[in-house]
Design brief:
Layout: E1 8-11, H1 15-26, E2 31-34, E3 51-52, H2 63-78, E4 89-97, H3 100-115, E5 121-124, H4 125-131, E6 142-152, H5 154-167, E7 171-173, E8 176-183, E9 186-192, E10 201-204, E11 206-209, H6 215-220, H7 224-227, E12 232-243, E13 256-258, E14 261-265, E15 271-275, E16 279-280, H8 286-293, H9 301-304, E17 307-319, E18 326-331, E19 334-338, H10 344-358
Parallel strand pairs: 1-2, 1-11, 2-7, 4-13, 11-19
Antiparallel strand pairs: 3-6, 4-6, 5-6, 8-9, 9-10, 12-15, 12-17, 13-14, 14-15, 18-19
Helix pairs in contact: 1-5, 1-10, 2-10
The structure holds flavin-adenine dinucleotide (FAD).
The site of flavin-adenine dinucleotide has 37 residues, from α1, β8, β12, β17 and α10.
């Protein structure tokens, strides 16, 4: 039985808020979605490359692994419930290995994951180079192939989730939440919007905060007893679209992780996305972009010759002193799901499933039997 007696407000329209609003509505909740329009200079989810590094994570156990594994399973079950044709997606991820010391560890990881039902496989250097000469590098040792990981284009994903939420009757207000207070059994939100039709206050029985870095100012406005301390820092990421006329005709085996950098084939011939830098703070440095574009001095000829056709950047929210992401019940009916750092697109479904469980909404029948998220910790 749901523990909330009335509407649930979901705050934020990045990957986490969008999946949460859609999923809660699917579970039967009456959802009011506070989703500011425009992305501002701090674009989070729209800057993401949408890489889903789930099974290939090096985490062997613990919360991070459970959330990743559940998210991969949920993405594969939930995407068909959306309009899958409108979300460009690629399944299968190759993590290249250039360190001789890493080979045994990655092979052991593949064996362990296979034992857990996750189909990871090791590919030798020769197997890779026979098919994809573009991967040539003198120190290439081999690669970890993860067929159930992949990549989703975040822009179309968010647009499709918004349409899906609307079809499920979610009421969406293009507003900023400027205040939040308990009021009896309910929560009272103060809203600021340029749209005169938008209400200035809302009363709801539960609030799910998915505001990324916006959590800090929102929590600061709360009653000090509830406020607690959930500090986050911003970590900037730069990414680019490349035109690579010298890329060998076989291309890449799908999305590739090459010395920690993601290379994602685009539908347009010879085009790739490359990302992302990890730059503490909110200022980008040209040096970091250059280093990434050159794979820190190890780029093959075809990548050295690539032209940047478009570049962008965004901020990630990284929890301070706690592991990412923050999934917490701050007070009865007040949930915080933020601080997803480098994996907000990947972890959005496990986050939404956790939220629905906390609020007492069971998964709808057609989705029952799905990976359950036992706890946020
Ligand atoms: C370059 C780059 C590449 C990345 N690549 C990947 C990747 O490949 N895979 C992956 O999984 N992750 C990736 N990430 C990380 C991912 O983008 C983040 O983890 C994710 O965007 C977090 O989503 P979110 O919904 O929590 O936050 P955001 O996307 O930041 O959304 C927050 C939302 O809350 C709203 N908001 C804030 N304050 C308020 C308020 N007071 N009232 C109302 N609304 C408010 C904002 O307007 C926004 O809509 C990448 C990030 C960057 C920068």
């Amino acid at each position: 039985m749901p523990i909330c007696h009335g509407p649930v407000a979901v705050v934020g329209a990045g990957g986490v808020g969008s999946v949460t609003a859609w999923w809660l509505a699917r579970c039967g909740a009456q959802v009011v979605w506070i989703a500011p329009q425009g992305t501002g200079p701090q674009r989070g989810s729209l800057a993401a490359l949408g890489v889903l590094m789930g099974h290939c994570s090096r985490r062997l156990r613990g919360r991070s692994w459970r959330l990743r594994r559940a998210s991969i399973a949920l993405w594969r079950q939930w995407l068909p419930l959306l309009d899958p044709n409108s979300i460009p997606q690629q399944w299968g991820l190759m993590v290249l290995c250039h360190q001789p010391d890493d080979v045994e560890q990655l092979q052991a990881l593949a064996r362990q994951r296979q034992g857990e039902g996750c189909p990871l496989a090791w590919r030798t250097r020769d197997q890779l180079l026979n098919h994809w000469p573009a991967l040539a590098a003198t120190d290439l040792q081999g690669g970890l192939w993860s067929p159930q990981d992949g990549q989703l284009d975040p822009g179309p994903l968010l647009a499709t989730l918004a349409m899906g939420a609307e079809r499920l009757g979610v009421q969406r207000w293009p507003a900023q939440v400027t205040g939040l207070k308990p009021s009896g059994q309910d929560w009272r939100l103060q809203l600021q919007a340029s749209d005169p039709d938008c209400p200035t206050t809302l009363s709801v029985s539960a609030v799910v905060l998915c505001p990324g870095l916006g959590a800090g100012p929102l929590l600061a406005a709360l009653d000090p007893a509830i406020q607690l301390n959930w500090p986050m820092s911003s970590v900037l990421g730069q990414a680019a679209e490349l035109h690579c006329p010298m890329l060998p005709p076989q291309g890449l085996p799908g999305p590739v992780v090459w010395r920690g950098v993601h290379l994602i084939p685009r539908p347009q011939r010879h085009h790739l996305w490359i990302g992302a830098t990890v730059e503490p703070g909110d200022r980008s440095q040209a040096r970091c972009l250059d280093q990434m574009l050159q794979l820190d001095g190890a780029a093959p000829g075809w990548l050295q010759e690539a032209q940047v056709v478009r570049r962008w950047q965004g901020l990630r929210a990284r929890p301070i002193g706690r592991p990412a992401p923050l999934l917490a019940t701050l007070a009865p009916g007040l949930l915080l799901t933020s601080g997803h750092y480098r994996n907000g697109i990947l972890l959005a479904p496990a986050t939404a499933a956790w939220t629905a469980q906390q609020l007492g909404f069971p998964a709808p029948e057609e989705c029952s039997g799905q990976s359950s998220i036992r706890d946020g910790n």
